[in-house]
Design a protein that fits this description.
Elements (H helix, E strand, L loop, with lengths): L16 H13 L6 H14 L3 E5 L2 H11 L7 E5 L5 H8 L3 E5 L11 H7 L4 E7 L8 H11 L2 E5 L7 E2 L2 E2 L6 E5 L12 E5 L2 H11 L7 H5 L19 H32 L5 E2 L14 E5 L5 H10 L26 H9 E4 L7 H17 L2
Parallel strand pairs: 2-3, 2-4, 4-5, 5-8
Antiparallel strand pairs: 1-9, 6-7, 8-9, 10-11, 11-12
This protein binds pyridoxal-5'-phosphate.
Length: about 375
């Protein structure tokens, strides 16, 4: 019989019978679109991260789109974004008619957007900066916010790699004008598809609420509850509503988040201890002390390591790996940005490798990943 090795996947769900019960109870309630589960999730989420308004939406990309749209960003405007991110960060800018302008990351140690490069990329058209807290590590928000203040720019946080990361005692997503979260299947809080948009600005929250549901003054839930009979449409909105089944999943996932993030933290420390003396491997964010969500575990490979062969060697041992990220400015659809020079982003895009990270892993799994990695580094050509 073939020797079947255990598969160590990149990310995994932490669902158990609590999620099953929560979904079943929604099904039996016979109300499945935006309703009380969504409202409870919004309330619990805003309490957890410490913000006054949280609105559940279809996904993280919709949250980003609503953030830019609610700030009236559009045609002729520019938004500075990192290139080292998932493409949705830049695409959401484009949905409004505005142009994403790519900035480099700070260094090979700090893979978050560089405040110095942000300042270099500001033009008369710049309206906002959208930061990405890579792997959950907070960007240099003090510097970024002081630049924003100086040039009168909005700051939007793409906090898809959170929630649960702290910067000066406050959670990411609550540090600027608007925060955006994703509840995609591989995120720390997973509902399949889903997202949350948060702000302390109540006027903005009201606008976002309209934009989430066609610009309508009432939602079906209110009409169902007999609180409203008619409605007006105030602005061109979208249908970015969330639903009860996923909200119920989200509430259970939120209750597990702190524990799960702590487990990620212990796994992260174990990786770091085992890897810090390994030749040909550099670990970014080594000396950061904040409590962070550890959404992913990224390493940088020395330039002479053949990453494709290394990934194949790990895969043949049942270990799944990934790349975060192929830089957005080098994608075909951002052709105009190809000439942009982002030296650190380029190096990270070419040499980053993401190792498995999720709360169901154990120390022995981390040890196996590191053993196979070390062996493969020594043996691939
Ligand atoms: C996942 C992710 C998104 C998009 O979220 P979806 O819920 O998949 O739409 C945006 N930005 C970053 C950095 C992400 O990781």
């Amino acid at each position: 019989m073939a020797n079947i090795k255990p598969k160590i996947v990149l990310s995994d769900l932490t669902y158990d019978n609590q999620e099953e019960r929560a979904v079943l109870s929604v099904l039996r309630s016979r109300w499945i679109s935006l309703g009380q589960e969504c409202q409870k999730l919004e309330k619990e989420f805003s309490a957890y991260i410490g913000v006054s308004n949280a609105l559940a939406v279809t996904n993280g990309t919709a949250a980003l789109h609503l953030a830019f749209a609610s700030l009236n960003i559009g045609q002729g405007d520019e938004v500075i974004v990192p290139s080292l991110t998932f493409v949705a960060t830049a695409n959401a800018v484009r949905y409004t008619g505005a142009t994403p302008v790519f900035a480099d990351v700070s260094s090979l140690d700090d893979l978050t957007i560089s405040s110095k490069d942000i300042e270099r990329k500001i033009t008369k058209r710049t309206k906002a900066i959208c930061v990405v807290h890579y792997a959950g590590y907070p960007c240099n928000m003090d510097a970024i916010k002081s630049i924003a203040k100086k040039f009168k720019l909005y700051v939007i946080e793409d906090a898809a790699h959170g929630p649960g990361s702290y910067y000066n005692g406050k959670q990411i997503g609550t540090l600027a004008d608007i925060g955006c979260f994703s509840f995609y299947a591989n995120k720390n809080l997973a509902t399949g598809e889903g997202g949350m948009i948060v702000t302390d600005n109540t006027d903005l929250a009201t606008r976002i609420k309209y934009l989430r549901s066609h610009g309508m003054t009432t939602i079906a839930w209110d009409r169902h509850k007999g609180r409203a009979y008619n409605y007006d449409v105030l602005m061109l909105g979208y249908n970015y509503r969330f639903d009860e089944i996923r909200a119920a999943l989200g509430r259970i996932q939120l209750a597990k988040l702190t524990k799960n993030n702590k487990k990620r933290g212990r796994l992260n420390t174990h990786y770091v201890n085992l890897l810090k003396t390994v030749k040909k491997v550099k670990i970014p964010f080594l000396n950061r002390k904040e409590i962070v969500s550890h959404h992913i575990f990224p390493i940088l490979l020395e330039s002479n390591v053949n990453r494709i062969k290394l990934m194949a060697a790990l895969a043949s041992e049942g270990i799944q790996t990934s790349i975060h990220y192929p830089p957005v400015h080098s994608m075909s659809i951002y052709l105009d940005s190809h000439k942009t020079e982002l030296p650190f982003t380029q190096i990270v895009g070419e040499h980053e490798l993401t190792l498995p990270m999720h709360p169901r892993l154990e120390f022995k799994d981390i040890e196996r990943v590191v053993d196979v990695l070390k062996y493969s580094l020594d043996n691939i050509q």
